[in-house]
Amino acid sequence: MEVDTREYFDDLNKAIEEDRLKHGKKPLKEKDEVKETKEIRVSTTDPECGFMSRENKQEMFCYLDHRTTDIKLNIITDVYVTLGNVHDFVPYLSRLDRQAQRFGFKVEAVALDSGYLTNPICKGLSDRKIFGVIAHRRYHPTTGLFPKWKFTYDKDRDLYICPKTKN
């Protein structure tokens, strides 16, 4: 199956060119378009659902619900269901726009988990003049390796001591 990213890249390239023009820079050179093909798993019992495959999650055919919550009033303002293979950030901006239009919300700021830290979301929030607080992902080091802050410095011997060492 071909994944078409043309619309996103067209929007992104347009924004880059506008910014470069505004700052007196030359246009960027055109790059070749990349086509990607990937295999899509289809359920034999429910062909309309999607196969979810995410790190640290159970792989399965499912549907996902996407909820938006007003933190100030602690109420759910939107629920939207997608196939299990649709990433959380995909419907976000259109659902945000729908709520603003339907309910007249004047959204000033949003708080999102790390799954929403993508270029389209950041650009979309910036375009809408919405302040976004988005968590970043913490990548865990390789098993058995310690971060440098866990080592202690022994000034007398002028060396660092590994956290696993007793002396």
Strand content: 15-25%
The helix content is 10-25%
Q: N- to C-terminal separation?
A: 58 Å
- Strand order within the widest sheet? 1-2-3
Give the rounded overall mean pLDDT: 84
The gyration radius over C-alpha positions equals: 23 Å
Sheet bearing the most strands, described?
A: 3 strands, antiparallel
What are the secondary-structure elements, in order, as H or E? Answer: HEEEHEHEEE
Name the poorly predicted regions.
none
Note the overall shape: extended
> How many E-type strands?
7
Q: How many helices? A: 3
Helix/strand/pairing category: alpha+beta
Describe, in plain words, how this protein is organized in 3D:
The chain is α+β, with helices and mostly antiparallel strands. Helices cover 23% and strands 22% of the residues. It has helices spanning 6-22, 92-103, 119-127, and strands at 50-52, 60-70, 75-83, 109-112, 131-134, 152-154, 159-161. It is extended, with a radius of gyration of 23 Å. The mean pLDDT is 84.
Please sum up the structure shown.
The protein has 167 residues and is of the alpha+beta class. Helix content is 23%, strand content 22%.
